[in-house]
């Protein structure tokens, strides 16, 4: 019976090609606009590391004195001071933790084949690569001993390796950063990351760094931060050592806590750490404050998906509703024009239910065709987003879930729009049209 309904629907499309085309175009445009905004929203809000997002926690400490406020919702700075980051990293718990900072260098080789250029770098500790599942194609991460000794080593991205060494195995080769040479110990593979959830302070949708170096080089080379650095009180900072011992917050810190018990134990440790620092004249607030947020909580805390994005999605669905309102009018005109034919079918024994289902199959086919065309229009829209906003390059795309959702949304909305016209035409009184014949 379904095949028969599909055949009748196709015949109906061919009898009224212009009206059918207008309805398909209307639903396609509505779906195209909706799926463009919905796909961006979906990719922005998607869990970037679903298999362990509940095990990775960003660490915040309330370092400010009483009376000082921050711009965050809970009044806690989003980053740590250098001294706190080093202390927490050197602590015995947990097993995996990472301190990091964004910076950059002038990059060049001992060759005239590649012109010098500026490269973004991430100063980090060895656990960064295992905690955030960074894949390697050559080599691996530097050792703990190299981290402790501030060894001049680095890991580079596949993109940079292609640029400098034509994609060949570059382990052991030297790269010059500013005035010093560094030996390559690892090359990471393409890292499918929609957003830099581990550093939302410095551009959530910016591309990942091309250079990764030991965190200990910050102090050894007196490196400056390319990220956010914020202070809350006046301090006399005359030397780099003063900066390292200051209350300026500029370091990101993450800890991997695999179980609720580990999270509780680490929270107890942070409380004892704050109490210890209070004895040294820091953390003067009466109540110790810290925060541990997992990946998704950290994204929500930083408003990765802004209200503007949510409003844009809502407006796109409003636009889809307008398109459906126009389709409703066209369906009413088309179905009611077919009333004499329906009357004859009813007189020949077709039930109201069969007539109703036939017309719903027709609008479902209309939605399916419009949904497929809408995917094409959505791809064009997403291409425009990628061309207009470079930082949306990784998220202005449709994954499998969105590709499947487009025809489902189109069919569902078309069926909703077609319920009233289909119900109206199935109420046709056969006697009226038999007498007119």
Describe it.
The chain has 437 residues and is α+β, with helices and mostly antiparallel strands. Strand 7 (174-177) and strand 8 (180-188) form a beta hairpin. The protein is built from 15 helices and eleven strands.
Summarize the structure in short:
The chain has 15 helices and eleven strands. It is α+β, with helices and mostly antiparallel strands and 437 residues long.
Question: What is the element string, with H for helices and E for strands?
Answer: HHEEHEEHEHEHEEEHHEHEHHHHHH
Topology, number of strands: 11
Overall 3D geometry? elongated
In terms of structural class, how would the helical and strand content be classed?
alpha+beta
Low-confidence stretches: none
Q: Residue-averaged pLDDT, rounded? A: 87
Nearest-angstrom radius of gyration?
31 Å
Terminus-to-terminus distance: 28 Å
Instruction: Describe the strand arrangement of the main beta sheet, using strand numbers.
Output: 3-4-9-6-8-7
Number of helices: 15
* Percentage beta strand: 15-25%
Major sheet = 6 strands, mixed, barrel
Task: Name the helicity range.
Answer: 40-55%
Key terms for this structure?
alpha+beta, six-stranded mixed β-barrel, 11 strands
Please specify the SSE layout and strand pairing.
Elements: H1 2-15, H2 17-45, E1 56-61, E2 80-81, H3 82-90, E3 96-108, E4 117-124, H4 127-131, E5 136-139, H5 144-148, E6 153-157, H6 158-165, E7 174-177, E8 180-188, E9 211-214, H7 217-221, H8 240-244, E10 249-256, H9 260-278, E11 290-294, H10 295-301, H11 307-337, H12 339-347, H13 352-388, H14 400-426, H15 430-436
Parallel strand pairs: 4-9, 6-8
Antiparallel strand pairs: 1-10, 1-11, 2-10, 3-4, 3-7, 3-10, 5-8, 6-9, 7-8
